[in-house]
Specification:
single chain; 85 residues; mainly alpha; 4 helices; 69% helix
Length: 85
């Protein structure tokens, strides 16, 4: 179901379930090796890190390009626009 659904729908739907699980168990708040790796893309907020993982995993399952830098840039811009509001 995850792979066959629309990426944005799935990511929004799973953010508070699987996304929260990723944040807590992969220590995005406290810092882990993986969260430090995600910071190299410019991601600093744990919610953005979880969305990044879900988006790139969906692309991977559908044999699409991962587009990591594009996804990271979109998440960073989205976070900046939320801050400015």
């Amino acid at each position: 179901k995850f792979a066959s659904a629309d990426r944005d729908f799935v990511v929004n739907r799973l953010h508070y379930g699987l996304g929260r699980w990723l944040i807590v168990n992969w220590n995005f708040y406290d810092g882990s090796r993986f969260s430090h790796y995600l910071k190299t893309f410019g991601l600093s907020h744990p919610d953005d890190m979880a969305r990044f993982v879900l988006m790139t995993y969906h692309n991977y399952l559908n044999d699409l390009e991962l587009n990591t830098s594009e996804i990271a840039a979109a998440l960073i811009n989205e976070r900046a626009s939320k801050k400015s509001k």
